[in-house]
Amino acid sequence: MTVSRREMLGAGVLLGAAAVSGRVQAQAVPEAPHMPHPTMQPPLFPTSGPDYRPVVTLNGWTLPWRMNQGWKEFHLVAEPVVRELAPGMNAHLWGYNGQSPGPTIEAVEGEKVRIFVTNRLPEHTTIHWHGIRLPNGMDGVGGLTQPQIKPGKTFVYEFELRRSGTFMYHPHADEMVQMAMGMMGMFIVHPRDPAVMRVDRDFLFLLASYDIEPGNFVPRVTEMTDFNLWTFNSRVFPGIDPLVAGKGDRVRIRVGNLTMTNHPIHLHGHEFTLTGTDGGWIAPERRIPEVTTDVPVGAMRAIEFIADEEGDWALHCHKSHHVMNAMGHGLANFIGVQKRDLEPKIQRLVPDYMAMGNAGMADMGEMEMLLPDNTLPMMSGQGQFGPLEMGGMFTVVKVRPGVAANDYRDPGWYRHPPGTVAFEWTGVAPAAPRAEGPAPGGNAVEVQVVRRSTSGGH
Amino acid sequence: MRQAAGVVTGFVLALLAQTSVIADPYVAAAQVAQRLGVATAVIATDADAEAVRQRVAAALARPLDADTAVEIAVLNNRALQAAYIAGEHEFAALETALDLVGETRRAYFNAVAAQQVASYLERALASAEATAELTRRLAQAGGANRLDQARAAELYVKVANDVRRARLDATLAREELTRALGLWGAEAGYTLPTLPPLPASIEVAAGVEAEAVRGRVDLMAARHAVAHEGAPAAHRLEALAIQVRSEVRAAFAAYQASYEIARAYRDDVIPLRRTIDEEIVYRYNGMLVDVFTVLATVRESVAANVAAISALRDFHLAEANLRATLIGGAVAPTAKGGITPHVDAAPGGH
Ligand SMILES: [Cu+2]
Questions:
Q1: Vertex A170, ends A169 and A173: CA angle to 5°?
Q2: Residues A379 and A326: beta-carbon distance below 8 Å
Q3: Distance of alpha carbon A107 from alpha carbon B56, whole angstroms
Q4: DSSP result, B146-197
Q5: All domains of chain B, ordered by start, with CATH?
């Protein structure tokens, strides 16, 4: 799965590393594994160091490590990457070890970690370990707690993990640009005692937003509010992995928010409780049941539930614009406007024109049409009953009986027991009272229509 | 001396070479035919008139090209007939003919281009009409307001006026051509094609000044005058020669630049417009823009195509002018003001 990077780093970088981290012995820099594709990797069970139940990163992976005289050593390489957001669209981002977000770092409470960070970006960077207790000089704030890591240089961060929980890492140097370019990753510290906060499946993803003009490849890094791609782990629906669970499994989902707005994450079919934030675990008696949890900006949330309802359950941000891909925001609302008869007229001017939006925008989910290069439909995806009409921050929790403990493969669409799917009424429909509203395509609205003739005259 | 059909062509000049009876209209006509390389006629009898009428009718059976227009004018224009008979001096008829040729070519390219522009603007009108109609329906459904409707309706009226103006321009330009051709009645209903394409390459500048000094009819007349009038005429000849050289350089510069401009429209602007139109449709497909933007883009494309037609016309006018500076005949300014169609951004629902 991973490709050795040792050769690619070259002697100059190795020398730089040695120069920076004098405390580290010769041959010191561990391999920097590289991930060439956005496929979800199976959990990485520990073969050295203390035991724990590893996490699963949606469309991502965990960074392999080595033990070195009691230190757990990792190597992150900050570099330009090409991230597939969903089939049909590649984003030219910055990330770590081949992907954005970077690989998840997993370690155990009480462990000492040594993280080598090599900068292969065209500008300096640092890494801040969000939420982690550590010596101030390891906090990664460029200029404040350390000099920035210049391009081509390798720095070493060393600290002991004093507290278990859900954390993340991201640059604290030219932060606005580097985060808008996709630089981020998760940092999971498992409890020392594997029985504490134990779950059967532990999924995680980071929320990131990008503004990539249709036809472009790089995000506009100066955008503050008007993003057009809302991602889980730099993926959008229909490119986001499903979360597969065995019926009855205790499931944890950890979500971190590195966008510039909040995201109410909503799970269908189950109640969950909020069990942790980046500030720590929440005592059981203080947890309240929820079906939606708001993930604030710059925060992490861990939710847990028993996957006791079989089926394909939507998991998504509840802001409806965040479950769409790129779309126009200044479009006229043509609902109720009959324009089919104008279609031939417009087609004489624009041969490929097709009338859309007369009834809503669902046409979009059903039609395959030519779009600008490297652009995903605003809504797409196909389910067993028809088009899903989704994009952005949307995926599915798939609960099935008898799923093997470490099997995360997509089981396909849920087979509903007979008589358990909503169905069309074919009997006599009762005369339901109708709300008073404008007749479809009606002209009895209280809108003053300018009667002045605009046709003829030629 | 007279051919059966009353039509005089270049080769009869050989028969006339010995004679110096300038007042003879057949000599004048033969001189014109030889100099211009096109047939002309002396219309002295009903039979002559009928022969010319038949030749003109045959030439008008097809859409008219520039060379045929010149042929018809030289055969059929009665002002030229008057010049053949009047015979004021040795070069008078030839100068009249050269003026007529230049005027005919200019009128031809103006008429053809104006007709093309007017018909292209119909697209802009259809786009503005669809915009206004969609905005009206949108307002009925509550999705546009009085301001949107007023803007859309105003745009439609402005574009409709552009079309009216362009149609008038086409009519006026065509009448200019019709006058040069000497046509009236049913024959004035001739068909015009579209502008000829740009040639693959253009003439080189080398030698054009010498060619003009050798070939300009006004210089020939000036040289002729030196023989009769002496020193003042010699100064006039020198002044005219200097002027001719400058006119040729200016005409060549206009010819070359207008070629490059027309070629840039053909090879760059129009293909780029196609890309823009295509990309806008892709964005419409992706619900990134709405139909009003698509229709506004149509109007932008019309403006680009109208500019391309005008640029091609300007090249042909510049070429006609260059010809005139080389052999003689009145020279007209190259560029005419083109139509600037309205391309206002889409109103409605924003
Ligand atoms: Cu959201």
A1: 140
A2: no
A3: 98
A4: HHHHHHHHHHHHHHHHHHHHHHHHHHHHHHHHHHHHT--GGGGG----PPPP
A5: 2-327 (1.20.1600.10)
> Which residue in A249, A101, A216, A220 sits closest to A169, CA to CA?
A101
Tens digit of pLDDT for each residue in B291-319? 999 999 999 999 999 999 999 999 999 99
Q: ipTM, 2 decimals?
A: 0.85
CA of B334 to the centre of ligand 1 (A): 62
Q: What is the pLDDT of residue A366?
A: 66
Q: Do B294 and A337 touch (CB under 8 A)?
A: no
For tokens 């059903």, the residue is A366
Give residues with Cβ within 8 angstroms of B20, minimum separation 6. Answer: none
Average pLDDT over residues A330-345: 91
CA dist A294 to A47, A57, A291, Å?
A: 36, 20, 10
In this complex, the residue of A331, A375, A442 whose CB is nearest that of residue B290 is A331
Question: Is the Cβ–Cβ distance between B210 and B325 less than 8 Å?
Answer: no
Mode of pairing for the β-strands spanning B7-8 and A380-383: unpaired
Length of chain A: 458
CB < 8 Å from B in window 12-51 of A: none
Mean pLDDT of the A57-62 span: 98
For A314, phi then psi, to 5°, come to: -65, 140
Packing angle of the helix pair B291-327, B208-215 (nearest 10 deg): 50
A443 in B contact zone (CB under 8 Å): yes
Of residues A58, A45, A103, the one with CA closest to residue A408 = A58
In whole angstroms, give the CA distance from residue A115 to residue B135: 61
Structural domains of chain A, ranges and CATH numbers in brackets: 5-306 (2.60.40.420)
**Residue B285 sits at the chain A interface (C-beta within 8 Å):** yes
